[in-house]
Amino acid sequence: MRSPSLFNRLRYKHLHMLVALSSSQNLHRASQALNMSQPAATRMLREIEDMFGCDLFERLPRGMRPTALGQELIRFAESALSGLDRCAEDLSARQQGGYGYLSIGTIMGAAPDLVMDSIAQIKTLNPQLRIRIMGDTSDQVIQLLEQGRIDLGITRRNAATDSEHYTFEPLGNERMLVVVHAGHPLVQREHLELAELVSDWPWILQPQTSPARIGFDQALQDLALPSPADVIECNSIYSMQQLIQLTDAVMVLSESALRDYLKMGLVVALPVALDVRLAPFGLLLRKGEGVSRELGLFIDLLRQKAAML
């Protein structure tokens, strides 16, 4: 089918149907989410598939699963709907005398001071600019960008950031520290071996797919050490910082994410050599999209502050 005919028939209600069906993978639940009858939802799905001339969902005994082509269209639908929401919020902010709307996704384990200082400065320059901050891990930030829910991601470089859909600009890197809470028995020790920590103590670590965890595991492998057997995995930096206060576990986290806790004396860095080689963190944008005045200003602030690190 030629694109002019498709554009004349495709509606936002069709995009909502694709997103709802992708989320529930069940036609009955999708119809409930859209406040329509199941027969009407069935007809709408058939109409969408007729437009594109192919099956977008595989019919299973229990539920439905997107086909490869369906996944591509779902990504477009998520991005289009999120883009419309962001546009509406931006127009609303400007109508109220503001300076628009900016949605940022960032990992908190990489130079949080860099991001927060830039946000504080752009708010000083544009007091009525509305800003939303989302994300926590690299995986979450990339997913938010893919769904069109954020304008910019600050994340670590990995295979996903090198996708043909994105452009990545490195900003810097950070040092990882091994820490415990201030009252931990290990604080009194002058000499510590990493092998002892790995074998004798519990650890709080980020998920195995995170860049920090991959770097940590590689550092242990380079030293011919096994991975810790007693591990609490956590993808929230805030939760990790709480857990370290409640347990005698050892934790690995970036120096900037720990800076305030170190200043307040809540955690102590242990004198162990751990060379964790992390991928650089930087700016992640959707390829081919325009940059608003506010987003361009924020990117310039990030670059300026990164140059001073």
From TrEMBL:
Keyword list, A-Z: DNA-binding, Transcription, Transcription regulation
UniProt domain HTH lysR-type: residue ranges: 10-67
GO MF term (any one): DNA binding
Gene3D superfamilies linked: Periplasmic binding protein-like II, Winged helix-like DNA-binding domain superfamily/Winged helix DNA-binding domain
Cellular component GO terms held in the UniProt record: cytosol
SUPFAM superfamilies: Periplasmic binding protein-like II, Winged helix' DNA-binding domain
Transcription is among the record's keywords: yes
PROSITE patterns assigned: HTH_LYSR
Short name of any one Pfam family annotated for the protein: HTH_1
Entry-linked InterPro entries: HTH-type_LysR_regulators, LysR_HTH_N, LysR_subst-bd, WH-like_DNA-bd_sf, WH_DNA-bd_sf
Family statement: Belongs to the LysR transcriptional regulatory family.
Name under which the protein is recorded: LysR family transcriptional regulator
Record organism: Pseudomonas kairouanensis
Lineage of producing organism: Bacteria, Pseudomonadati, Pseudomonadota, Gammaproteobacteria, Pseudomonadales
